[in-house]
Amino acid sequence: MEPKVEATELEYRSGICGLKPGDIGFDDIHGLISAPPPPPETSSSFTALLELPAPQAVELLVNSLEVADEFPAKPDIAHFPPPQIFPSNIALIDHASKFSSLPLADNSSENYSLLSVSSSKKLDIVKQEQMDSDSNPNGSSPAISDQILKSSKRKEREKKVKESNKKSKKVVQNESYEEGGEKLPYVYVRARRGQATDSHSLAERARREKINARMRLLQDMVPGCKKISGTAMVLDEIINHVQTLQSQVELLSMKLAAATPRFDFNPDTLLAAESGSLMDSSHPGMFTPSVWPEGQINGNSQQSQQLWHFDGLQPVWGGEENNSNFITPDNSFLSYDTSRNSAAASLHSSQ
Amino acid sequence: MKARMGYSTSLKQEFLQKWIKGLHIYSNFKKDMSILERKKAIKLSADVAIASTRNSSTRWSRTLTANISKNVTNKILVEQIFSDPEVIKNKASNRLITCSNRIASRKILRRSHITQIRARKMGPYAVKASSIAKKLVKNRTQVLKSLVPGGENMDEISLIKETLDYIVSLRVQVDVMRRLASAAEHSTRSL
Fold it and tell me: Which UniProt keywords are present, listed alphabetically (chain A) (predicted)?
């Protein structure tokens, strides 16, 4: 997962700058790129948790972003490939942050933000102070394109996302780009044109980007959230979802409590019926002896041995006649215990 | 895709095993429980099981186990399900308190600074609109914090991350429980 994303990133960079050695420490960059970034523990588990391979997550973002991307001066910078954007891949962000320590060759009013890909689809109105590409695409594009070309040669190595959003209706502070006081190792943010470049706002922006990246992930997680725009609405949906899930847990536990026989709270019988459905989710109630030899439950068989004591099943077949209902499921249940097959066989025959 | 299926399936199975283990402990511990007691036992075992799948790496799982372990009887159950004793939860809570004050004061300063700048830059209406939006978001985050166990002291970033993890775990829990419930019903009905 990680190396593959790395490779594409490398291609992107070399494609942009054509491997110009005139830039600062380009070999270092290559070394940095090729060195496998130690993914922070949280990120690797995070992406695994999401069960989204990084390229897939990337793809999600690319698709969502290509819709929003409307930079008019694109032909001028045609050699920039459509942004391979990995902002929500935390490992990559971490990787990218290594570049933040590289000093810039030149100061320019052209500033790009690494993670501001969401600017064209803002999640909340709060981000007004950030540049909004939609608001001002035309006026500044000719002037910008020159600067873009100039700065591109110097800055491609630090640019992961070609951010086209320029802000010129705000108070323009065309001050020099400052390698911001961004100390966080995970997010690399560059001040955009006209924006304050002091460390506070940079840190603030980095924080916002982080939050937005994770909100996007959450949006993908919760069904029906992708179309919603606006953090408040998305949060609404998320809250709704969590509440639903929690109430479902309550409901199901009640249901289970009601379904087990009143006189005997024995989960074994339920497990027998259930594990069949876990296996292939087809027919929970049909347990024929043919199920018995198949110990196909992945890992259940070896781990279940110590759990389900044979003796524990005795009360089930005790004097209670209602318990006879569960004899059939119990037989299949016993199948998971391969070491006690002989006992199971005797049970089966005794039925 | 296959990796994805494998991961969730193994998670489900792990949860299921631990849950069954907990149920066993309960049934051995107390015979003839009423329906409400049974429901409580089921839910508790399920919660402990799903929290233990995270191995205390997430805050919500730690908080959940801590809350459950407050009851002495449950503590035994918890310790039996977990392979190692639960000492981490104490440390976690201490860490929370010390950090939150510093973070809060820093946030207040930053917020005031930001509002000044924004008030200068943007028109008056824009400021108000954005502040309203912020208020909405803040309300929602408060609600979310109350929902996710252990979410009270977290900052937004980790809150979102915890929510994600929590949602996934809840889904696993609901899925397994639903199957078990339907299977149990099916078997009771058919016989």
Answer: Nucleus, Transcription, Transcription regulation
CA distance A164 to A161: 9
Q: What percent of chain B has pLDDT over 90?
A: 1
3-class SS string, chain B: CHHHHHHHHHHHHHHHHHHHHHHHHHHHHCCCCCHHHHHHHHHHHHHHHHHHCCCCCCHHHHHHHHHHHCCHHHHHHHHHHCCCCCCHHHHHHHHHHHHHHHHHHHHHHHHHHHHHHHHHHCCHHHHHHHHHHHHHHHHHHHHHHHHCCCCCCCCHHHHHHHHHHHHHHHHHHHHHHHHHHHHHHHHHHHC
Give, in order, the Cα–Cα distances in Å from A2 to each of A36, A91, A94, A134, B142.
8, 8, 12, 33, 35
pLDDT of residue A18: 44
Residue of B nearest to A257 (CA): B39
Sequence ranges of the domains in chain B:
2-189
Considering only CB atoms, which chain A residues are within 8 Å of B150?
A: none
For position A279, what pLDDT does the model report? 53
d(CA B148, CA B142): 10
Which DSSP symbol is given to A104?
Answer: P
Please check whether residue A285 is in contact with residue A328, taking contact to mean a CB–CB distance below 8 angstroms.
no
Minimal Cα–Cα distance from B120 to chain A, Å?
A: 10
Nearest residue of chain B to residue A209 (CA atoms):
B157
* Residue with more model confidence, B151 or B97: B151
The angle at the Cα of B172, spanning B169 to B178, to the nearest 5 degrees, equals: 140
pLDDT at A247: 93
Search chain A and give the residue with CA nearest B22.
A267
**Predicted confidence band at A225 (pLDDT cuts at 50, 70, 90)?**
confident
Cβ contact A245:B174 at 8 Å: yes
CB contacts of B160 in chain A (<8 Å) are: 211, 214-215, 218
Q: What is the pLDDT of residue A92?
A: 45
Inspect the interface and report whether the beta carbons of A273 and B186 lie closer than 8 Å: yes
Interface check for A222 against chain B (CB to CB < 8 A): the answer is yes
Q: State pTM to two decimals.
A: 0.51
Specify the pLDDT at position A246: 92
- pLDDT > 90: what percent of chain A? 3
Identify which of A241, A246, A273 has the shortest CB distance to residue B184: A273
